[in-house]
What does this fold into?
Amino acid sequence: MALNLRDFLTALGKDLIRIDDEVDPITQAGALCSAAPRPILLERLRGFPGWKLCDILVKDRARQALALGTSPKSVVRELSDRMFTRVPGQSKVVPDGPCKEVKLLGNDADITKLPIPIHSEGDAGRYLGSGITITRDPDTGIRNEAIIRAMVKGPRKMGFWMAARHNWAHLMKYQERQAPAPMAFAIGLHPGYEILANYSGRHEGYDELEMGAGVLGETLELVKCETIDLEVPAQAEVVIEGIVPPGVREPEGPFGEFTGYSKGAEGPAPVFEVTAITRRRDPIFRHMQATVFTDHQPLVSVPMEASLYRRLREIHGHTEVHDVYIPPWVTMFTVFVQMTPRWDGQARAVLLGALSSPYLHPKIAIAVDEDVDIYDPREVFWAMSTRVNPEKDVIVLPHERIHPLDVSAPNVDRSEVTVMRVGGKIAIDATKPPLWRKKERDEFDRVKPKGAGDPALEALLRRLASMA
It folds into this structure.
């Protein structure tokens, strides 16, 4: 049986917060999902009988581990290994699937009848932020997936913003031919597929869904769309089919983004015209609240962490990189690297590698030693405060390409590349001196409180730890 969203919700058990109060998904889901400390399921949606809504599925390492079938401490290392050794996974086109239980075509395909929320105060309208966008390269036939924002503009129309990456290149090829581009949104997949849909590296000859199948160790089931030439996941809760007409642009935004701001990419945007909606009979709407510290950040940062882990370990032939962490609370613009530098310049090379990866997000990279817990910001700031000599351990890189939604940097081009920002990047080496400088390195050994490691104190220390 192919994995689906419902399998994951069942596996959560008592970790899933169930809200039986009637909730207006358009005006109230945003606040509830943003405040939820762990996975949440809204079971009664006002104005949308028969629907449920879920969110906050992979906010932390424990739930990411559940989605990927590993342990919390192994998420980055395990995902990094699978992403580059088990892909592409197997896929097959099946004649039917759960996403086809209800078919709404033509004028019956009304997206306003889906419980699509308003995410934030000041948003231009209701926004679909959880649909895995599926496009196809008209030259190679290879699909591409990403999760983008799409503004509901009417029963059968959405405006959307898309960074200038793979799927945008597909749309531009259709536009150059003056042809409509087929596109679909698949809503409500197993979170393992959602994580891999946000991979931004090279994947020649296969798409992110097939990468997800390889990572999850299963055969991906696909069904053909009803009105366009695309295949979509058979296990999806909802599929929206449509076309992007060439050259059409309409206002889109503002929208509260993962940065915590609503500015950055509003303006004339492409338009998606709905041609069909297919769904389950008792659908669960997978929402991804776009305010800070929700699923919106880790869904992108987890594959980024795994990609960087592999990339940085290859620097200088082999570097002892132990872990990579991009906390949700840095909105993906800062990356922490835990490593053991062996030679002079190795930490600096790793930091520069983190700032020049396939991802545009990181503009701040901080390296710490293995004795620093990168999941504890107090530890990281302690290392920065005590192991950084700013005149030699801080590198500022001017005039670099920055993520298009980073409003701290100026936008230098508002043409068909959507947004192009240029600004500075910074690398901070908070590691100890490298291994070969043993005398200098030993000076940075951390002191331990007297009695640490005393077997007689073990039980008491555990009790104190549990009170934290």
Summary: The first strand starts at residue 17 and ends at 23. The chain has two domains: 87-285, 314-442.
